[in-house]
Design brief:
Belongs to the thioesterase PaaI family. By secondary structure, the chain is of the alpha+beta class. It has helices at about 5-20, 60-75, and strands at about 30-35, 40-45, 80-90, 100-110, 115-125, 125-135. It has a single domain (about 5-135), classed as Roll (Thiol Ester Dehydrase, Chain A). Helices cover about 20% and strands about 40% of the residues. It has a six-stranded antiparallel β-sheet. The chain is globular, with a radius of gyration of 15 Å.
């Protein structure tokens, strides 16, 4: 199947990533809520494994959420293999075990070779982290590395 991903196809991708036991399996509890037209919304209930020694969401978890969910938003626009060129995170507030965080990603622009995305992580209305993600798009190769 080629072309942009729909919500169902993204959910299948997340399950595949979790089953492969790669780093992406750390997002096994991520729930995709919606995905379309360059946007993706997900939620994660924080567990002990998502926390730092202070008992709040680890910065690496925030960065991983920004990386993954923005990639899912991009896949709703183009089924292209991509690689991170730049990832920026601003940490604005804490979240603790049991909190449900909402991740909202948007594709600002997807050009021929670069895509620009933005992500907000919130607990309710409170902004916890915001990020920008720039990705290089491989021409003529889909997300799984197949020639288009």
């Amino acid at each position: 199947m080629s072309g942009p991903f729909c919500l169902q196809r993204l959910r299948q991708l997340v399950q595949r990533q979790v089953q492969e036991k790669t780093f992406n399996s750390t997002m096994s509890k991520l729930e995709l809520i919606s995905a379309s037209e360059g946007k993706c919304v997900a939620e994660l209930t924080l567990e002990k494994s998502h926390l730092n020694l202070a008992g709040t969401m680890h910065g690496g978890v925030s960065a991983t959420l920004i990386d993954n969910v923005s990639t899912y938003a991009l896949l709703t626009v183009t089924d292209s293999r991509s690689a991170s060129v730049d990832l920026n995170v601003s940490f604005l507030g804490p979240a603790k075990e049991g909190d449900v965080v909402r991740i909202e990603a948007s594709t600002l622009r997807a050009g021929q070779t670069l895509a620009y995305l933005t992500v907000d992580i919130r607990k309710g209305e409170r902004l916890l982290a915001t990020g920008r993600h720039t990705k290089y798009l491989q021409k003529n190769v889909d997300y799984f590395g197949n020639t288009k």
